[in-house]
Design a protein that fits this description.
Blueprint (H helix, E strand, L loop, with lengths): L3 E8 L7 E7 L12 E9 L4 E8 L2 E5 L1 E3 L2 H6 L5 E9 L10 E7 L4 E11 L18 E6 L6 H8 L5 E2 L10 H11 L19 H12 L1 H30 L7 E5 L5 H8 L1 E2 L2 E4 L2 H15 L12 H21 L5 E4 H6 L1 H11 L6 H10 L19 H4 L2 H10 L1 H6 L3
Parallel strand pairs: 10-12, 10-13, 10-14, 11-12, 14-15
Antiparallel strand pairs: 1-9, 2-3, 3-7, 4-5, 4-8, 6-7, 8-9
Length: 423
């Protein structure tokens, strides 16, 4: 699955005026060539500002930073321009760049950013790394990530699931630290020769020379790459997987449990754990109008305005932020290839036993009706999280507590998401 071809490379129309860019490599002639790494080289001319950074990103997350260097040949063609630079990016994308393109992004010193190119990959394989389900004495472990916006019932759902003897982990804390996800990010980062000098210095090759040398060998000798790089990546993934399993088993009061339940973010996390585990994502949705109201009430009660929002004191700014997050959540749900379950907060709080039974079946955990009722009765109700008289009373609360103008504005902003999921 670590082998890919380039499906398309699109040059975008820059949002920053006075920018011209070009890629020397890759070129269309070799798009069909199977690859193990993605070497990209080109140049940028910026007439209206100085270039601070060029990077390769996927869904807003950094994949690799570019090495920046002079391009005298371009300077002779564009005399008098404010800033001209060459760049090279070397990356091992693994599973990033197929359902959503990789983007080469330019950042200027005055804080502007623009996408220069979009690269869509096609991976050759079945969609997952060949990591064994039984490693280092571990039984087969299922990872059940919860994907949701804040204030959508993730704490309540986690508390329910952690009452099962088959689920490893801790109820509310320390899951917030998400150590397992950090380990997975470390595994991915260790594969990238991404650490370049911020500014040109005596060592113009200021990157991970060992890893870059390995990638150049694989570029020149694809047979060696096929024989060696795959097992190397798989072994590193297996080691990371075992560390995560060990971590959760150490934290859990049930070390024999075989399911990990964890809330994760909306960037690289789902794709990372998908490469390491039998992954069964739980998409938890709540009416975003109730989500926004819950955030507002929660912040007012605490007297601070920074709960998962950069601009929590402004209704309009909160809508901008929420629209972007809802778009990501919908993209992850609609684009996920594999088993998944969609859970509505409204159903969860009205019928916790019925919804919990469905989730347990989905994650492969057997439970009788009596077991499910016991889990519901034992679930921890975090009173500090509740902003309504009861969870059920929080459904549709926005209709009574938002002004008519606020309702009209939020319905306009969030109409695509509301229509898509039937709210």
């Amino acid at each position: 699955m670590y082998t890919f071809t380039i499906q398309s490379l699109v040059k975008t129309r820059s949002w920053i005026n006075g920018v011209e860019s070009h890629l020397d490599s890759p070129v269309a002639d070799d798009f069909a060539t199977p690859r193990f790494c993605l070497p990209v080289q080109g140049w940028v001319v910026c007439a209206d500002g100085r270039i601070a950074n060029i990077r390769l990103a996927w869904r807003g997350s950094l994949i690799a930073e570019a090495k920046i260097f002079p391009r005298v040949d371009v300077e002779t063609v564009y005399p008098g321009k404010r800033h001209i630079t060459g760049f090279r990016i070397d990356a091992v994308p693994l599973l990033f760049g197929d359902d959503e393109p990789l983007k080469i992004i330019l950042d200027t010193e005055d804080g502007r950013s623009t996408t220069l190119f979009e690269i869509t990959l096609r991976f050759l394989g079945d969609g997952a790394l060949a990591v064994s389900g039984r490693d280092a004495g571990h039984d087969h472990v299922i990872f059940a990530p919860i994907l949701a916006l804040a204030r959508s019932g993730t704490t309540f759902l986690s508390s329910l699931l952690h009452r099962s003897d088959a689920v490893a982990g801790v109820d509310q804390y320390p899951y917030e630290t998400r150590l397992g996800v950090h380990l997975a990010k470390g595994w991915f980062s260790s594969m990238q020769p991404r650490f370049y000098e911020s500014h040109p210095g005596p060592n113009s090759e200021g990157m991970d020379q060992n890893l870059l040398a390995m990638l150049k060998i694989f570029e020149a000798e694809p047979g060696i790459a096929a024989a060696r790089l795959g097992p190397f990546i798989e072994a590193a993934a297996r080691q990371c997987r075992n560390k995560i399993v060990d971590l959760y088993k150490m934290l859990s009061a049930r070390p024999a449990a075989r399911v990990i339940v964890e809330k994760i973010g909306l960037k690289l996390e789902l794709n990372l754990v998908r490469n390491l585990f039998d992954t069964r994502p739980i998409f938890l949705l709540r009416d975003p109008r109730d989500v926004l109201l819950s955030m507002r009430v929660f912040n007012q009660r605490r007297g601070i305005y920074d709960f998962h929002q950069l601009h929590a004191g402004s209704f309009r700014e909160s809508l901008f932020s929420m629209s972007a997050n809802l778009k990501l959540l919908a993209e992850y749900h609609d684009g996920y290839r594999g088993e998944k379950i969609l859970v509505r907060y409204e159903d969860l709080v009205r019928d916790p036993a019925g919804v919990l039974q469905q989730i347990l079946v989905f994650i492969g955990v057997a439970g009788s009706a009596g077991d499910v009722m016991r889990m519901v009765e034992q679930a921890t109700i975090h009173k500090e999280h509740i902003t309504a008289a009861s969870p059920a009373a929080s459904v549709g609360r926005w209709q009574d507590e938002m002004t008519s103008s606020e309702q009209a504005e939020i319905n306009w902003f969030l109409k695509p998401f509301l229509d898509r999921f039937g709210y």
